[in-house]
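Appendix B. Worked example

We walk through a single record from start to finish. Start with the input: the chain for Solute carrier organic anion transporter family member, Baryphthengus martii, length 722.
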Amino acid sequence: MEISSKENTQFFSNSTILPLDRSSFKSESSASKEKQSRCGGIKIFLGALSFVYFAKALSGSYLKSTITQIERRFDIPSSLVGVIDGSFEIGNLLIIILVSYFGAKLHRPRIIGAGCLIMSAGTFLIAMPQFFMGRYRYERFTSTINSTVSVSPCLQDKNQTPLSALEKSQAKINAGCEKEAGSSMWIYVLLGNLLRGIGETPIQPLGITYIDDYAIEENAALYIGCVQTVAIIGPIFGFLLGSLCAKLYVDIGFVDLDSVTITHKDVQWVGAWWLGYLIAGVISVLAGIPFWFLPKHLPKPQSRKDSSTSSEQSKFITEDNKDQHKSYQQQVTIADMAKGKSREFLSWLLKFLPSLKNLFGNPVYILYLCASIIQFNSLIGMVTYKPKYIEQQYGQTSSKTNFVIGLINIPAVAFGIFSGGLIMKKFRVDVLGAAKLSLGSSFFGYLLLLSLFAMGCENSDVAGLTVSYHGSKRMTDYEQALFSECNSGCTCSKNDWDPICGENGVTYISACLAGCQASNGSGKNTVFFNCSCVGTLASPSQSSSAVVGPCQKGNECPKMFLYFLVISVITSYTLSVGGTPGYILLLRCIKPHLKSFALGIYTLAIRVLAGIPAPMYFGVAIDTTCLKWGSKRCGGRGACRLYDSSALRYVYLGLTLVLGMVSIFFSVAVLWVLRKRSSPQDEILSANGERGACGTKSRTDNFVNSDRLIQTTYWPEKETRL
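Next comes the structure step. The output line below is what the pipeline stores for this chain.
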């Protein structure tokens, strides 16, 4: 009986063990499936977010590449182009608070998808004026358009000209004429860029926090680094797309290209700027589609379930109201969130003000913030008008300029950012070392930029503007100098801009002002004869010929452009090396629980105080160097046709360098504060005595004891792994 009872006991025990094994097997199987689902979901989200980053970077860089095209197409000055460029930041700031507050409680992937649709709508809106404002009209002498008959540009009879500049200047300007000319169509470009800024707003804060919430902790930094890497590729394709579209005529598909009498090397040429925006808009639509099919929540990693730390979303819910934890797990509507917000806002305000005071009481953070604001003013202004500077200073086409920037400068910036992070990791650079590396990068970068002052081209010889008709330097009042004895018998207008190149290598504003009596040929092959103002310096009275288009810059200019490219690439790389150390310095100089708030204030300050104003005042400064303004069809000042090369070089590079040097001054102050705070307490005690140490301690209480900046034992576990 004992044996049988033991056998029965063993039998029942074995029979009870079997179900346990099966259940554990099932739990392991379900856990494995959950892990695969989580990994698959987060990787799909990662791929979709990377594509969105690529799309927004492509459209943003393409806008930079079309600055000069937009300026010529709409006949607007550089200052107004700066306003258009800054409208993106304005749109971003309009809803950043709403997105940041409500976004974490709603369906984040779908909000990002909606943002992509808004961004694409804005991109399409930018291109719309092309289809409503009529065909592009450039200034050309009558015979160069549709005739092979010899016609005299130096007209004595006004009735011979169907639409002369003289008639335009004498015509009365009225609202109907201005509307017909499409002079206000640039507003659609501004509104479209504003919409782009609104649509781009939720992508970064909601996308990065979604990855941080549902990715394994050790993989989160890698995923974010992948997204940022893809974002760097976007500008390369954006500028290359700008280079391709700049070679195509603006009205391609609408007019016969054989009738176009200008080439892409002409200063009046406008490329198919609108075509790139249509392509970018389609890419933005495609990038937003996957987010409509992604879930609101993903299964959380086991490490995050077990750890005491939680995601930003759950932490927000737990800290604010633990009793309503279950209600937030259910579907939350905007109407529900709108109830009782006054008390919640007051509670938030009571927490906000002490945090703001604590943040602004940190001297390193304030000094670094000031340095960054001024440096970004310098860099944003420089990047915005770099295509214009290359075109005007070195006589390059828009297509070649965009190609060079996209294929050379942008990769140099990406490599510089990567090198900065690699140096930080390889040499285990601490906070003080990061400040030194950031300062050294800025100092040597702007020092290299200083050498560009010697790598400019001289002004082209333009009769009546840069030189007189006798070959000497131009007079003070250049508008009066446009007329001379050699063209006194012609009926010309000083508002025309239809340049021709004389045999003497001098550019003349128009064939009429060159005193040309006859012409032959049509289109690009037109040749002007018997030009009384064109002649050698030895024989000024000798009549000569001229061809359509301005003369090329001096022989030294191509060589100077090559030097400029080399120094520009090295400068871009050098300045970018300090990007990662500076970012690490920003993260290390604040309390851990204030990181998100500090980064938000930092981003807000950069956008408001650098992203919006820099293109505007850079554009105003560049406009002051204009020598010849174009005229609109119905009167009024249009876009600038010719800049003073020397003045443009001094204004563009000078403004960039002055701002850079001021930012270096604040960076030196950051380094000085860090050195002062990093002194050991025992050395201070031995040097200054107990009283001095107490004084130092009282001064450094907020920094060392609260922020824990210099204590390297506090930070090894908080390295940013990108």
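Two observations about the output. DSSP finds 27 helices and seven strands in the chain. The chain has three domains: 36-142+183-300, 356-458+555-682, 460-552.
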